[in-house]
Write a structure and sequence with these properties.
Oligomer: homodimer
Structural class of chain A: alpha+beta
Number of helices of chain A: 8
Number of strands of chain A: 4
Helix content of chain A: 40-55%
Bound molecules: glutathione
Chain lengths: ~220, ~220
């Protein structure tokens, strides 16, 4: 197993997706918090894109969460987080794109970034128009997940994949700030209970962000 | 070969990346312009994310450009647009993410969407602050490309890959509106001349958007 260090911020959904992949593949990883908005020279040397996550694996320095997760899948194939057939793999990647592009723009950036990141970075108060629009959009996204999960055990099909990790990464960060209504859909709640109880999820449930206290149900497996 | 239809808009970099992959793999494809902002019912049925590109391949309906390109690579492996080793594949995907996330947010959305999409969709005039910020950011991105191309024949290494198509998709759309300064870097210009002269690029160079005339050099292989 490689020596792994992840430069991250605890509530970043992109970082959480990588943390889940690493943990599921049992790659021990040191977590190093990166104050990316300070644009330190070391940080920019590690990733000229100036974003987290950045993963150091022995001498490799990796950025872009989708590229990192595909690399982990190819270099450490067991346990697998991707199905075999080209069509099933397509569906996983479509859903990763759905969450990391569409859900991120419509929900995560409107709720989490307004309520948490702005405060941490010192960029003022949440914009209430954005918060309202994020609160509206998450309902539609939960309904879409429910529609998928009525036909499938996991989001992309019969096995747990990167698509579940992408979705759970966003939802867990939003759950930390009480922005997920788990009563909206039983199938979505059951799906989250299943993924939340995996050992890979433990480190995420233990996160504590100074100044922001998670609700009691955040780390509770019977929420 | 499958019967292929691509629902697209001509200047969308995500659509152009898929068009380039299809053409390079010699998959004939009917192009159908999609007025996605009208949110037609058929369109939403094809892709609940309400985005282009959407690719119909026989009975499959595919969305999310990265997922589509990976699918094409797996289902039609020749000619290959991905290298073999996990590390080299990582680098391709990192750069695709660089262009489709970072370059898109910092440049394409600030220049192309302000100057073209707003007018087509009827959302008013370009925001000059955005245009200025995009014009500043593209310089930095061209310099980053130059830095890569000083060490490599193609953006991700020694062979042409999806990373080159992602980059060329954004730059060609910006070139259509004269927003690329090709004099900034000789290596970038040489790279673009190489990719522009491929048969796969022809359909892109033939695009005509009513109300927007491309500069004379747009379709010129000796620009
Ligand atoms: N496409 C990137 C997105 C990563 C990203 O946007 N990370 C945020 C934190 S959640 C960040 O570092 N933002 C800083 C910036 O964009 O300058 C990935 O998938 O890794
Ligand atoms: N992640 C998507 C992004 C596609 C995208 O943003 N397409 C734009 C046109 S360039 C679009 O359809 N926008 C409509 C919308 O976002 O509602 C992909 O890679 O296919």
């Amino acid at each position: 197993m490689p020596v792994a260090k992840l430069y991250h911020v605890p509530l970043s959904p992109f970082c959480r997706k990588v943390r889940l992949s690493l943990a599921e593949k049992k790659i021990d990883c040191e977590l190093i918090e990166e104050r990316y908005w300070e644009m330190g020279a070391d940080f920019l040397r590690r990733n000229p894109a100036a974003k987290v996550p950045v993963l150091k694996l022995d001498d490799l320095v990796l950025s872009e969460s989708a590229a990192i997760c595909e690399y982990l899948e190819e270099a450490f194939p067991e346990p697998s987080l991707m199905p075999r057939s080209a069509e099933a793999r397509y569906e996983v990647r479509r859903l990763v794109g759905w969450f990391d592009d569409k859900f991120h723009n419509e929900v995560t950036s409107k709720l989490l970034y307004e309520r948490v990141n702005k405060k941490i970075i010192g960029k003022g108060f949440p914009d209430s128009g954005n918060v309202k629009s994020g609160a509206r959009a998450i309902k539609y996204h939960l309904d879409y997940m429910a529609w998928l999960l009525e036909h499938r055990r996991w989001l992309a099909g019969d096995v747990m994949t990167l698509a579940d990790f992408a979705a759970a990464a966003h939802l867990s960060s939003l759950d930390y700030i009480s922005d997920v209504d788990w009563n909206r859909s039983d199938v979505v709640k059951d799906w989250y209970a299943k993924i939340k109880s995996r050992p890979a999820f433990r480190s995420i449930l233990a996160d504590q962000i100074p100044g922001f206290r998670p609700p009691a149900h955040y780390a509770d497996l019977d929420f």
